[in-house]
Fold these 2 entries.
Entry 1:
Amino acid sequence: MPSLTRVEATARGAAITVESYQVDLDLTGDGDTFRSRVEVRFRATPGTATFAEVKPAQLLAVRLNGRDADPGTLTDNRLPLDDLEATNTLFVEAEMAYSNTGEGMHRFVDPADGETYLYAVTFLDNVQRIFAAFDQPDLKASFVLTVTAPPGWTVSGNAEMAANPAPGRWEFAPTVPLSTYLFSLIAGPYHVLRAEHDGVPLALYCRQSLAEHLDADADEILTITRQCLDRFHQLFTERYSFGKYEQAFVPEFNLGAMEHPGIVAFRDDYVFRSAVTDTQREMRATTIAHEMAHMWFGNLVTMRWWDDLWLNESFAEYLGVRVAAEATRFEGTWTTFAMRRKAWGYAADQRPSTHPVAPQEVADAAEGLLNVDGISYAKGASVLRQLVAWLGDEAFLAGLNAHFAAHRFGNATLADLLTSLSASGTAAGGRDLAGWAELWLRRSQVNTLRAEVTVDADGRYTEVAVVQTAPESYPVLRPHRIGVGRYAADGSVRRHEVDLDPAVDGGRTVLGELAGEPAARLLLLNDGDLTFAKVRLDPASADAVPLVLPGLADSLTRAVLWSEALDAATDGERPVTGLVDLMVAALPAETEVIIAEDVLGLSRSLVDRYLDPLTRSAALARIAGACQRLLDGAPAGESLQLAAARGWIAATTDADLLVGWLAGRDVPAGLKVDAELRWAVLRRLVVLGAAGAAEIAAEAAADVSSTGAERAARCRAALPDPAAKQAAWDVIVRDTELSNRLLEATAEGFWQPEQAELTAAYVERYFTDMPAAVARRTAWTADRVAMLAFPRYAVAQPTREAAAALLARDDLTPGLRRVVVDADDDLRRALVARTAVAATAA
Ligand SMILES: [Zn+2]
């Protein structure tokens, strides 16, 4: 199936203007397909030709300007349209397949009650799975939707409902101009809550089996929605432009959420059925703010083509974190951003597949989908934060508002944004924005900022310098504006901001203002986390970390320090066992939930891949001990207790105590061993060989929810049993029936560091089986399964050789190629780190 190329989209965008889509969908019946009719009105140069895209189960009728055309002319997904007139009407009728992979019209039957729910996902080029369209972001049009569905259902789309002429029939008002990837609807017996704010009708939807959980959190969700909407209206002169603001929590959603105007979709894992930490609530709040930011960045002003995906995602990520911090009770979102999102960005930017935040050219839509990654989101948002520090907030916001005014309901590019920002930025201080953008947005890879410190006999600085470096293969230095924190042993701080300008000093900036000042116990570069750069401490500061870190009041500073420690271990500069030493020293004193959670999560990935089995066992025992101390000190019933419990469960080998928790024995006071925590305990017991298929079946029988089914699938794949592994592998490489979520859960469970011998034969099979497995599936699910099923614990040269042999083939999909290139690079880094540690030991 050809992917629309940039060249084709540019030509078609110049050749035609789309006015409207009249979309009529019949969602009655319980077959595998639904009936789709669309009438597209568009203008063209008379006598020219173009094509529309559609992916039908069966194409029934095609009519162009009243003349029947032969449905047999459909080639792959392209419907040729010849002999166009000045104004044209295209009618296409088709049977379209329901999806269970979150692409197109997703259909989900809730195992909890047998109810059926539908929702439409059109990102990135999936509208053609629902109706025929000119599927590219710069051919905006008005959509008029009518739906036939079972009379008891709730149906909602981008626009307000205009009429309900008969039971089971819904007619919606015309939308304002939208890109095709933003069309959406939901249909099913959804539970609904309605509200209003500042003249904007609000609604929340979820499936019936989650209704009580949505009701319990509705106040929190609606309050955040109102607070964010108010804040955006303060920041932007252009008001929210899409009428109602509805938020639908839908099952088996692939992304965190999607910003469909008027009907935002969220994964319904955000409707919490079990106890969650405040981090999870904060992520939900940030996601609400992120999607709302898209109403301006993406929906009001849309990128012209996918090479400017960052204009959507970097801005939404930046504004989501910022607005959540400024307007909601979650004031610490920048700590979460530093700890979690930036780790994702740094990792992505150091991989072979890295790309500029704003690539010069994305060849086709399939390549655009691959850029839904840590660069377009986390790095891009970090770069915007740096831009604000460098340019000033007032100039930044003035530039954005000029951009919205100039391009509302249209499309724009990086060049257009720079024009808007330059006008305000130049007035604000004459910074060279074009030069800045070239280095930050057009070049990939990450810089390292290293402190070089000399101190005299009286304990005063003789010199403090910041040395900026870049990877040898990509020697680009950048201007940075950073905070410098000087910490005393008691945690008290003196902080100032400095500009690093390699054009002036070649990348070694001497901080002359610090000469003669008393030397701090710990000197921290990028304190406050304003820039996107790896940081390395001077040796004396590095030695002081275990002493100083636990007493630091500012969680963002602790996050930057932890990130430094994790990053140095990831790079093999310091041993993972040293990182575990730091965890033992500092983790039990940690009070910020996100830091505890991510230190445990990120270090675990290193422990599992960088350490040999014996060293790993010892490290896990020490981590379990640190978690136990954190758990002992955590307030009963609060987030930190839950985070510590989860960390302990994942690290302990004490099966008796775990079994006791399931039976309600010796559970710390205030800790609820509810559905999710029970599955976490059972998963650990399965890996330890202390629970089997019977226990999984019993737990699944007690939890008949779809989430329960996912957790059970993951546990079954993790069973240390040859038959279970064979069954799981068959699912991973051959199944085409299971939903996206059940496939992912199976792939997630398959590899366990404890089961190296049992799964050894599957290392080779990954590389032989995966090309055919990918070919059986749609792009998003294929790539997710390929990524999760990669043998990431087989850290050995033969795995890399097998990867190299696969990559030598010329028939891989771009998605599988990227998965294997990146996962192989992770193996390379793990091998380098293991070798470095072995050399130190010898
Ligand atoms: Zn987004």
Entry 2:
Amino acid sequence: MSDIHDNKSHPLLSQLEDAVALQSMSNQQLNDLADEVRDVLCTLLEERSAHFASNLGVVELCLALHSTFDFRHDRLIWDTGHQIYPHKLVTGRYNQFMSIRTKSGLMGYPNPVESDYDLFMTGHAGASVSTVLGLSSGDDILGQDDRRAVAVIGDGAFPSGMVYEALNNAAHLDIPVIVILNDNKMSICPRVGGVASYFDRLRTNPIYTGLKTGVSEVLNKVPVFGDPAERFLQQVKEGVKAGLHGGMMFEEMGFKYFGPIDGHKIGLLKKYLKMVRDIDGPVMLHVITEKGHGYEPAQSDPVYFHSPPQFKDEISNATSAGVVEDDSESVESLPATPPATSPVAARNYTHFATDAIYEQLQSRSDAVVLTAAMCQGNKLEKVRDELASQFFDVGICESHAVAFAAGQAKAGLRPIVAIYSTFLQRSFDQIFQEVALQDLPVTFMLDRAGLAGPDGPTHHGVFDLGYLRLFPNMAVLSPGDGLELASMLSFALEHDGPVAIRYPKAVAPEIQREIPSVELGKAEVISKGTDGTILSCGAMLSESIVAAARLADEGISVGVVNTRFIKPLDEDVVSKALRNSSFVVTVEEAALVGGFGSAVMEFAEQRRINTNHVRRLGIPDIFVEHGNRDELLAELGLDADGICRACREMIDDKNRFSDAVVQ
Ligand SMILES: Cc1ncc(C[n+]2csc(CCOP(=O)(O)OP(=O)(O)O)c2C)c(N)n1
């Protein structure tokens, strides 16, 4: 791991004990500090993959905020939280910074356990305006109305429906809340939609373009406190009335809107921040930044540099036009463990899914695919570019995506909703009402279903079985290897009702065998055993096969079932396993509460089958920390070792139980 501690090139950062010190720094010092922050970010990327361009883009904004506010007392929320790195560096975490995104190291997102400067643990976009408004409301009621509450939200996150719910409520409450719109023209890919076009129009405002020098002259005289600030505000407002102003939409919603201003000029930012700090009501400051600012390759290719692989290996061939071996929101090195039974192609589930989607869209004109701003993560660029009329990017609007797909399905299309497991949580109610209740043929492709690795608890997709299994009409599938994925998608598009297919962020093994066709509620029996049965859910199959092979070497005969369907279960296969095996182990990369093992137990209860001999392996009732997926799986007992251990324990238990009976 690179050492930044002794780095003489960070004289300011290495001495900085607390962000409050920024308040007494000159603009020149803050600019020097910005250079040091960028240097650390580049050093980090030499070490490992991380969110990069977004962080480079907010350096000046972050420093200006901390030099204007005291966030030990005031409130600051970075929407989503992927651009939190400069904030971490100036809030006492410089020394631990190089541990970021490693197990037991700093999180790549805000984490209140690390620092009081991080108020919420976040990773999902679009919630910041609501939480900041709530903080301001709490402070207001509790008599702490000298505290100021600031949300920094990107233009990519801004179209989220929740933002408008919060803006609406803020205008009604009319309490101080500062929303900073960080407009860099980008989501992960270039942002799309009507809100994006509106922001583009706002950029033509003379305050930003500098056409009306009168305005910038006024800005140079910005006073700091009290009435003069009000007077300045009045002057700016006069400018507004004189036709300089954009932001009417926000003004009409009850916000005072300022900007857009250059988000890389610390002095200018501080002036505006001081002004909005003293306004007694909802205010929006529109700041223009450049994603990747300060590092030329990231400036020219912010899509690739959103979360690129580590520098060492990849920087020379970095281009967003080419295929990036990224399997993330953030990239992680690909796990190596092959299933013992087969050769492995180093392709991950996402690649199999993308190919299957492309083929379906090519062969069926009624099939369409939807993404919620994750074209790159879902590797849908080829579909977007070659089959544009069947491709829909709705922005970071997962709830809308699902209801929109329901409408398309009702109209006769076969929509495929490609949303990561964790983000689909946003659409719980639309899955219920618009899709399942209507029994509409919408197919959900849930990538990152399982442990999402270094992104951590905000991104692990481990709750989907719980929330999908709930709904009548819903079929829930998970492929045991890459080869099954395409057949599962063709099944889904022929099925007359909603289907969800979940798969993890992992290399997809190709288990060489005669693959039976996918039929509703039919499992695949991989091997039979005389002692016990492993009921494997989805990607746990290869580890289950490895475990069974190892146990066979020890003289323990364990069969393996690739259950394929979590709902409906293959009642015949599951009931035979429960009745005929002396023990059954269920294995899933999902929360045990409401998951696959729970489904097996519920089924056993319905059939009045004893379950003393059943053991469920999966994610216990905790939020799993960040770390490499393999490390996390091993720790949770969800690798071949863990499965073997569980099987041996079941045999020991059985022996103890028989001894007790004999006595
Ligand atoms: C609900 C949700 N959907 C999708 C994502 C994945 N995601 C992470 S960052 C990002 C882009 C955010 O764009 P913006 O807010 O403009 O920030 P920028 O990276 O441009 O600074 C997306 C789509 C997410 N974190 N949360």
